[in-house]
Specification:
The longest helix is centred in the N-terminal third of the chain and has 44 residues. It contains 14 helices and 17 strands. The protein has 430 residues and is an alpha+beta fold. The protein is 41% helix and 20% strand.
Length: 430
């Protein structure tokens, strides 16, 4: 959430910034919070004044007794204060809870270089890589990745649906091996760059989860464990960031540079046609994630760095792709600036999203109360960043399409061959 101090001291700037998101309900919530916060601060002052008055009356009673004066008027005055205090303190408690919930529904402040736009059609293409050939340009009709995987006997979709329902799959043989090859390559590549590997818990409690995600995700995205205060994680970003809740780092302890590997669970699923099935929109999937916790002045540099890391992986896997800067009307609640990487689908003749890479500035850190101590002793909220290094099913889809041959086999990208037990191709076993 936005630090309340920033809103109080820079209200006009905050309002103008949030207006770029073109969401009237956001400005309405901002106005409501400002009004409620004003009432809270006024009540706090009144409570402080009452406590001061109570102390003064106590002293006056003591002095009057010593002088033998009538203390009845003072006692009558003192009797009214506890009741008034109780009433105001109860209202303060209610306002504190309401204001925090309201503040958590207000999205992050956007960075200045986020392009203005209404929706995804106005996102800005930053750069592209690779030769994006269509199926026709390749000279043969590509088989849908799910159909090809089933034909080669390396994936089970129908049997997975039989035991788990829509949105689940089972990988077999060489595709399961390719899945692990991608994971191992991504982790090894980032480890060489100084990232520390973390395999997080697969469940989190609500208090921790509220610090890292849009509150609406609790209903629309996350699975809750019935009868328990646990939610299945939707990405490694969430536990890797939340685990530092209520901590203050020494300056020398940051940046925290971590790579998380996890199996993730999401309710969201699409079935809008053939290419929304197979290995694309799923309830369960593996992902390797980059996480950075750093000083505010370092976050923009780190943002560009983690984007480059993900681009490098796409190049190493020989997948044509592009980097897209997300516009103000399409960016999510938590990010202050966000890039997507979209990989090429030769079968569809278009790009599809495979990576999300965000600088969340202090938004998550404020909610989670994660700070660092500066050299002068002052404490400041850190910046948090997250970036997909690779979402495995989406990358499998990209490989199955871009490395498919006219014979219906799959050529394994050279970068992954050392992890494939000597195999250079996936084909139908005879």
């Amino acid at each position: 959430m936005i630090d309340p101090k920033i809103i109080r001291e820079n209200y006009s700037e905050v309002k103008n910034n949030l207006s770029r998101r073109q969401q009237p309900e956001v400005l309405e919530r901002l106005e409501k919070w400002v009004s409620s916060d004003k009432e809270w601060r006024e009540l706090k002052q009144q409570v402080d004044d009452l406590r001061g008055a109570r102390n003064r009356i106590t002293e006056d009673i003591k002095n009057a007794k010593a002088k033998g004066e009538d203390i009845a008027p003072l006692l009558e005055k003192a009797k009214k204060i506890p009741e008034e205090l109780k009433e105001k303190e109860a209202r303060i408690k209610i306002l504190e809870e309401e204001n925090k919930k309201l503040l958590m529904t207000i999205p992050n402040l956007l960075q200045e270089d986020v392009p203005y736009g209404k929706d995804g059609d106005e996102n800005v293409i930053v750069r592209t890589w690779g030769e994006a050939k269509t199926s026709k340009e390749k000279g043969f009709d590509l088989i849908h990745h799910g159909e090809l995987a089933a034909k080669l006997g390396i994936a089970e979709f129908e049997r997975a649906v039989k035991i788990s329902g829509e949105g689940f799959y089972a990988l077999k043989g060489d595709l399961a091996l390719l899945n692990m090859a991608i994971v191992n390559y991504a982790i090894e590549n980032l480890s060489k760059k100084g990232f520390s590997l973390v395999i997080p818990p697969a469940m989190m409690n609500k208090k921790s989860y509220e610090g890292v995600t849009d509150l609406g995700d609790f209903e629309s995205v996350m699975y809750k464990i019935e009868g328990e205060d646990h939610y299945m994680i939707a990405t490694a970003e969430h536990p890797l960031t939340s685990m530092y809740m209520d901590e203050t780092f020494e300056e020398k302890e940051i940046p925290k540079v971590e790579v998380g590997y996890s199996t993730n669970f999401r309710k969201e699923i699409g079935k809008h046609g053939l290419d929304e099935r197979g290995l694309f929109r799923l309830h369960q999937f593996d992902k390797v994630e980059q996480i950075i916790l750093c000083k505010p002045e370092e976050s923009n540099k780190w943002h560009e760095e983690i984007v480059k890391n993900a681009e490098e992986l796409c190049r190493d896997f020989e997948i044509p792709h592009r980097v897209v800067l997300i516009c103000t009307g399409d960016i999510g609640t938590v990010a202050a600036k966000k890039y997507d990487i979209e990989c090429w689908s030769p079968r569809e003749g278009k790009y599809f999203e495979t990576h999300s890479l965000s600088n969340c500035t202090t938004y998550q850190a404020t909610r989670l109360n994660i700070k660092y101590k500066k050299a002068n002793g002052e404490k400041e909220y850190i910046h948090t960043l997250n970036a997909t290094e690779v979402a495995i099913p989406r990358m499998l889809r990209a490989i199955l399409e871009n490395h498919q041959t006219k014979e219906g086999t799959i050529t394994i990208p050279k970068a992954l061959q050392p992890y494939m037990l000597g195999k250079t191709e996936i084909s139908l076993k005879k």
